Amino acid sequence: MLMQTAANTLPESTDTLLVNVDHLSKVFRIYDKPADRLRQSFASRVKLPGRAAREYGRNFWALHDVSFSVKRGETIGIIGRNGSGKSTLLQIIAGTLSPSSGEIAVNGRISALLELGAGFNPEFSGRENVLLSARIMGVSPEEIAARFHEIEAFADIGEFIDQPVKTYSSGMYVRLAFAVAIHVSPDLLVVDEALAVGDTAFQTKCLTRIRDMQKAGVTILLVTHSTNTLVEYCDRAIYLKRGRLIKDGPCRDVVKLYANDLVDEEGGRAIDIPVPEGDASEAREQADTVSETKKVVSDKTSILDVKITDEDGRERTTFAFDDPFRITVSIRVAQPNHRPCFGVQLKSVDDIVLWSTTTQHMNIELGSLEAGTYHFTWSLRANFSGNRYVVAIGVGDVESGEYKRHARLPYAGHIDVLPQSNGGSGWLAPCPVFDFTK
Ligand SMILES: Nc1ncnc2c1ncn2[C@@H]1O[C@H](COP(=O)(O)OP(=O)(O)OP(=O)(O)O)[C@@H](O)[C@H]1O
Questions:
Q1: % pLDDT > 70, the chain
Q2: Which residues form the ABC transporter domain (predicted)?
Q3: Residue 9 has pLDDT above 60, yes or no
C-alpha cells in the first residue's frame, strides 16, 4: 500500500479532470542471464573509443503509448490478462514507478493499494504503520487520532494491530491497508486487485465502502479480473492487452471484447457473451433509491419498501449455503386490484435472470385488494453456489388474463451466499457425488 500526493498537477483549465495519462510508455530491460545485467551496466559506463558499446538484454514494453483521462468522481475499471501492464500503469499513476516516455498528471491526493509488500514497513506494528502512512499522506496527528478507532474497527485484526506487520497474513495486511486507504480522505483511490486477497465477507465490506466513496465523489481506479465487479461498480472500463490500450469505453462493450478475445486466444470461437443491459451509474442510482427509500411510486401500486432478512426478521445480506432468508415487500395499492400478481427474481450482478417466479405461476389466489397498504413475504433458501445475487421485485395484475406490471424494482437489494468449502463455483449448487471405477 502506498499513499502520496501528486507530483504533477493539471492546469487550472482542466480542473474537471483528475487524471491525465498522455502517450505513456514503460520499457523494462530484460536479461536472459543475471550476469548480462552486470555486463550491461559495465558496458554502458566504459565506452571504448571507436567502438559501439555492446548491448546486453532486450527491451520489453510493459506499456506502449497509453493515453486516457479520468474525470473527477468517475470510477474506471482496468481489465486485461496477466502481464498486460495493469499494475505497471497503476504504479506509474501512484508515483512509485517512473514512465520511460509520456506524461502523467494527477490533480489531488492519491491513496493507492498496490501489490502486497509495498507501503508498510514490515518491522513496525500495524498501529505505527497507520500513523506513519497517515503522516506521509499529510493527515494531521489530531485527525488520524480521531480516525484511528474507525481504521482499527474496519481492519478488524484484533490484537495484531500491535504486532509487527511482517507477522501478518496477506489477508490481515490487505485489511489494514484498505482501512487506512479509505480513511485518509483521498481524491483518487487506486486499488490493484487487493480485494481478491480478502475473504468474501471482507470483499463485500470493501465494495460497500467503495460505493460510499463513489457517492462522496471520490475518483477510483480499480484493477479487477472480475467482469461482474467491473460492470457493477465502474462507469467506464479500460482494456489493456500486451501493454497497449485496446479499448476505453462503456463497461459492457469492453467486457464483451475482452471476453471474446479470451475465447479466441484460448483457441475457441468467438461467442456472444451475455453482458448486462444497464450500466454502473444506473446500478448506483438504483442502489441509492433502494438504500434511501426502496420506493417505486406508480399510480396503481407503489413499492414502499423491501427488506431482506433472516428467519428471525434481522436484516442481513450474507448467508451460508442453504440458509433460509426472506424478502418482505411493502406496497401501497392506490386503485382496487381485483387479480393482483407479485413477482420475484434472483439475478446475477450482470443482470442475467437466474430464477424468476410469480404468484400466478405458483397458482396462488390472492383475492381482490382494496386500496391500502399491504406486506407480503417470499421465504426462500440460499441453496445456490457462493456468489452475489441481486433481488428484483415486481407487482402487477392479471385482470385481463395477462400480466400487467404496475411497478418494478430491478435492484431491491442483494444477498451474498458464502462459498461452501467443498462446493463448486458459478450459480447452481447441485451437490454432486463423484464415483470413479477403474
Ligand atoms: N521490473 C520489471 N522488470 C521487467 N519486466 C517487468 C517488470 N515489472 C513488470 N514487468 C513485466 O511487465 C509486464 C506487465 O506487468 P504488470 O505487472 O504490469 O502486468 P499486470 O497486467 O498487472 O499482470 P497481473 O494481472 O498478473 O498482475 C509483465 O510481462 C511483467 O513481467
A1: 83
A2: 46-267
A3: no
- Please tell me what DSSP assigns to residue 8: S
Q: Is the pLDDT of residue 330 over 90?
A: yes
Nearest CA to ligand 1 atom 29: 83
Angle at 110 between CA 108 and CA 115, to 5 degrees: 160
Q: Is 86 in the pocket of ligand 1 (CB under 6 A)?
A: yes
Ligand 1 centroid to Cα of residue 38, in Å, is 22
Instruction: Please tell me whether residue 176 adopts helix, strand or coil conformation.
Output: helix
Q: Ligand 1: which of 87, 91, 116, 226 to mutate, judged by most atoms within 8 Å of the beta carbon?
A: 87
The architecture (CATH level 2) of 293-417 comes to Distorted Sandwich (2.70)
Residue type, 388: R
Cα dihedral across residues 398, 399, 400, 405: positive or negative: negative
Whether 2 has a pLDDT exceeding 80, the answer reads no
Sign of CA dihedral 9, 12, 15, 21: negative
Q: Is 339 in the pocket of ligand 1 (CB under 6 A)?
A: no
Round the average pLDDT of the chain to a whole number and report it.
82
Answer yes or no: are the C-beta atoms of 337 and 397 closer than 8 Å. yes
CB of residue 114 inside a 6 A radius of ligand 1: no
Bridge partners of residue 326, in order along the sequence: 309, 379
DSSP state, 105? Answer: E
The residues pairing with 190 across neighbouring beta strands, listed in sequence order, are: 112, 221
**CA trace torsion 249, 109, 66, 225 (10° rounding):** -60
Measure 89 CA to ligand 1 centroid, in angstroms: 10
> Ligand 1: distance of its center to the CA of 28 in Å?
9
pLDDT for position 116: 52
What is the structure's pLDDT at 56? 73
Q: What are phi and psi of 268, to 5 degrees?
A: -95, -165
Count CB neighbours of 81 within 10 A: 16
Atom of ligand 1 nearest to the CA of 243: 14
Q: Write the CATH number of the domain with boundaries 2-281.
A: 3.40.50.300
b/e 238-247 (16+ beta carbons within 10 angstroms → b): bbbbebbbbb
Task: Give the residue-averaged pLDDT of 286-290.
Answer: 44
pLDDT number for residue 76: 96
CA of 233 to the centre of ligand 1 (A): 25
**Is 293-417 the same fold as 2-281?**
no
Q: How far is the CA of 85 from the centre of ligand 1 (A)?
A: 6
Q: Are strands 372-381 and 404-409 parallel, antiparallel or unpaired?
A: unpaired
Tell me the average pLDDT across 273-284.
45
User: C-alpha cell of 326?
Assistant: 426472506
